[in-house]
Amino acid sequence: MATSTITQRPNPTAFSGKGNTIRAEGTSHGASSEASARGAAIYSQSWLLTVYDWWVLGIVSTYAWACSVPQYTLPWFRQNMRKGQHLDIGVGTGYYLAKSDLTGVQVTLADLNQDALDATKKRLVGEGKVKAEETRTLLHDITRPLPDSCPKFNSMSLYYLLHCMPGPVPAKTAVFSHLKHNLTADGVISGASILGKDVRHNLFGRVIMGFGNWNGMFDNRGDNAADFDEALREHFYEVETQVRGAIFLWKASKPKV
After folding, report:
1. Are 180 and 235 in contact (CB under 8 A)?
2. How many angstroms separate the Cα of 57 from the Cα of each of 2, 112, 203, 250?
3. CA-CA distance, 62 to 70, in Å (whole number)?
């Protein structure tokens, strides 16, 4: 299937073309976007994408964050993914999608890093989870509104993303002010994030936290569940949250638009 490119102009609403690839170019505006790009850049390292599932979602999640992905995070993802249009933001390696039933799901992958998008789509297609021609990729800074060409989504997911975004919680959760407009009236948005405040970190967790915040991969020393919960309720009528170890699990629906 031929693929067209949709290019973002200085006016973020000016798009043209169609196809299964969207390139929202020129998205790095200001310090926040530059910091986001630094956090995403590490995923250009092929070795990290190779060991990500084993190291980050296996060893670190279980022993540093005290939140087993197979036991808690993956079921949370599966429970909150809906049939129809699904947008996965901050794709990592596509682990959650690869471990879920995608029957009846039209997947759009969004990330600030092209390598992560390519690796995730290749994985999902290779494992027979999706068809290449039916899977859209969006190279985009999620701190900016989605392209006008994007559909309304029945579900969205942001897993292990918010703690990588720059700034305090209100700056991170500002993304909901525009994402909610791309969610259907009965849609669900969900995610998981590493908290830096008001949770107990073990020695392993403190080491990972220190390193991640030092090298720019994280910016979450002040992230706490109360602020995230409050921010979600500003944008959605229904919010459910829980803390497992150092991980904040959340879902929201019925957007306030």
Report:
1. yes
2. 35, 20, 18, 18
3. 9
Token pair 């944008």: residue = 235
Residue type, 5: T
- Under 8 Å between Cβ of 108 and 116: no
Q: What are phi and psi of 181, to 5 degrees?
A: -75, -15
| Burial of 251 per CB tally in 10 Å (0-12, 13-18, 19+) | buried
Cα–Cα distance between 114 and 144 in angstroms, integer?
17
Give, for all 257 residues of the chain, the pLDDT tens digit.
333 222 233 333 322 233 466 655 444 334 445 554 454 445 545 566 678 999 999 999 999 999 999 999 999 999 999 999 999 999 999 999 999 999 999 999 999 999 999 999 999 999 999 999 999 999 999 999 999 999 999 999 999 999 999 999 999 999 999 999 999 999 999 999 999 999 999 999 999 999 999 999 999 999 999 999 999 999 999 999 999 999 999 999 999 99
Residue 231 CB neighbour total at 10 angstroms: 22
- Residue 234's identity, in one-letter code, is E
User: CA–CA distance from 70 to each of 58, 77, 233 (Å)?
Assistant: 9, 10, 28
Residue 115 Cα distances to 101, 120, 147, angstroms: 24, 8, 20
C-alpha closest to that of 63 among 207, 210, 222: 207
Helical axes 114-126 vs 46-54, angle rounded to 10°: 50
**Residues 8-23 as b or e (16 or more Cβ within 10 Å = b):** beeebeebeeeebbbb
Report pTM: 0.85
